[in-house]
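Open question from group meeting: does this chain pack into something compact, or does most of it stay loose? Before anyone orders reagents, we agreed to write out a predicted structure and look at it together. Recording both the input and the output here so the notebook holds the full record.
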Amino acid sequence: ARPSPPLVDWLHHRIGTTHVAHHIDCTIPQYHAREATEAIKRAFPHCYLYEPTPIHRALWRVACNCVATRPIGNGRYAFIPM
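Structure tokens returned:
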């Protein structure tokens, strides 16, 4: 999950801040996404990853640096600069 500016988050119906719930169960309606996201965070704290970098900075970082991933175990991957 990643924070979005409040106006952007509201205009996009909080899809950026609640998108993990969609990947777990795509039948969760948008109006329950925030509630589902909070439940997922509580139920799976070791699996729920939060990236605090604001979206505009993260996009700039990706645009300026070619990145790749490498497996780090347990089905997770880490970003590494190329």
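Observations to bring back to the group:
Residues 4 and 55 are 6 Å apart (CA to CA).
The first strand starts at residue 67 and ends at 73.
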